[in-house]
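Reminder to self: keep the SMILES exactly as supplied, no canonicalising. Ligand is zinc ion.
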Amino acid sequence: MNLKINFRNLHPTLAEILKLTLNSVAPREILSVPEWADRNVMFPDNSAKKGAWRTDDYEFWREPMENINNPKVLYMSLMTCAQIGKTTLGIIDASYLIKHMPSPLMYLLPTIHMAESFSRDKFEPMTNNIDEVHEILGDRVSRNSNNTILQKTYPGGFIKFAGGNSPTDLAQHSVRVTICDDIDRIPASAGDEGDPVFLAEQRTESYTFFNRKMIRMSTPTVEQTSRIYRFYMQGDQREFYVACPHCGHYQTLKWDRLHWEEIKNLAGEVIDFNAENNYYECENKECGSHLKEADKRWMISAKGKGKWIPKRPEIKDHRSYKINRLYSPLSSWASVIREYYTLKDDTASQRIFQNTVLGEPWKDGSTVEVEIADLMKRNEDYLTEKRKTIPNGVLLITAQVDVQADRLEMKLSGWGRKKELWTLFYTKFTGDPEQLEVYEEAAEFLKAGHMRDDKVTIHPAICLVDIGYKQNAVLAGIERMKKIVHLPKGIIGIKGGHGDRAIIPNKISFTTKKRYVYYTIGVDRAKDAAMDRLKTPKSEDPAPDAVNPNYHHFTSSCCDINYFEQLTAERKEIKWSAAYGPQAKWVKKKEGIRNEVWDLEVYGVAAEILCYADYDRLYEKYLAEAKELEGLKKAPATFMHEDVAEEPEKKQVNKPKPRRIYGAQTYNPLKIGGNFVESWRK
Ligand SMILES: [Zn+2]
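Structure tokens returned for the bound complex:
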């Protein structure tokens, strides 16, 4: 029935009554989320973006917003870069639901603390600025109010803000809609209860026949453990296609088609860049137009008529989306290029770029196996018969000890600037770990200094000893070692711990008889770091003294096939379960394979951290020492002998204190002829 009334023919009072009556009985106009947002959403004054929300500026968000009204869409997963308006989208969706489809709603964030600050600093300022929603929620003022930071009640439902670290919150309520934001930062398990995202989404089950909806959003992290990447792959995998303003060819925006001016020197090396002078090359070969920032704004706006195209259209109830920063109206292509230069230098920064700018997960190299043959090719000649010294890059030496039933195994690692690493010694001290003799031998070995190519001598700074086996005997052994040799950063007991805890000491414990301090090392993290180093290629700088960030050097004096077999004895496996999320675990490749070398490598990661070394200062210090030694060599002195290389700052040159300087071939505490390394490796 379409009723048309000419109100002008009626008495004014009657016309007014009739209008009110008709309004109250007329079906409420159902606006889609984008239509409603365009009419109602204003950015708060404190936000970076000002004025009214216009879906036309964010054409790529139109379809995800419309999904709220689409009963066919059960799941929606958004894998995005940062700074593309994802949080705003979540708040708009929630606001629309409160106004037009009131029902219980859960908004999950990684922690309860983040949930609080999200509600207070983002949700409230924005919804207070949307009159229709503010009328419903009111202000959070009095204690008796139904509106608290973490829960806001309204006719027909409530919105609950929850943290992934708070399992009780997740189990309490049944809800129709869950919005889980930043899900890659949500802990793997809420206490012992399981995956928080799974727990939250389970709460929608009683709404199975009432248009329940599960929305997940996040910038991705590491591919193997990323929740959002997994959800993206499970969904219909949509990408946003925009039309070239010149040829109309639809394409997705890709980082490698963005070009900019680079300034090169005569050798062809890039020495500077000009981010402002950029263009995007249309992928249609017949067109190849150079698109500019203004073209981009047109392409991503409603005028550009961009569209989401699924890779797996056969999946009907799960729409999954991914989008990168090249589409963002909130940042220019030039700013993306500038960000690339600030983040391109090391693996950790490249990962940030990949995740937060390209919106793509980072492939964690630690699940890719390293080849023993490739590692063996790295063997160098330091500490061999040919070259008895250690490289000049070594600025710090750490020692790590593993305790076995009939011996101690020790590894000495040399560290340089940007965490460059040299394996120096791997050696065994045969003896009963319940007796003190074997520790005495190890301590004697730690007394030795190690001469660099430039004659500067470096002593071990720290020694970590695994006390996981025969703890009391090993603790007594450590005390004996301390009486024999003093190391500046100490001789310290450690235990390997599991889980994703930090590498740095996270636990100090005491035994009952005597108070010993030891550290627990989060070995999973340390193993990631050690494996990352094995996969880091040498820098391309050909200079012999070039710094190789994170590169691991080996020497043929102690690294043979057996050494490398042990070094690569474990691999990282990732298992997914619906209820528990990703579970990464380091496992031995083969049952019974020896892995002491790998363990010692992992303790080395912790030892280096515990030294808190200032490598730039050490570099300068030893450089000055080397110059001084060089000067002494040139002077016509008769006392010049290797032994005076020690402690030149004490100016003991006239009264050289005899000290033993051990190269690989000369140190022989067991008085066995030949290479001590060889003599102990049997
Ligand atoms: Zn084109």
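Points to follow up:
The chain has 20 helices and 25 strands.
The first helix runs from residue 12 to 25.
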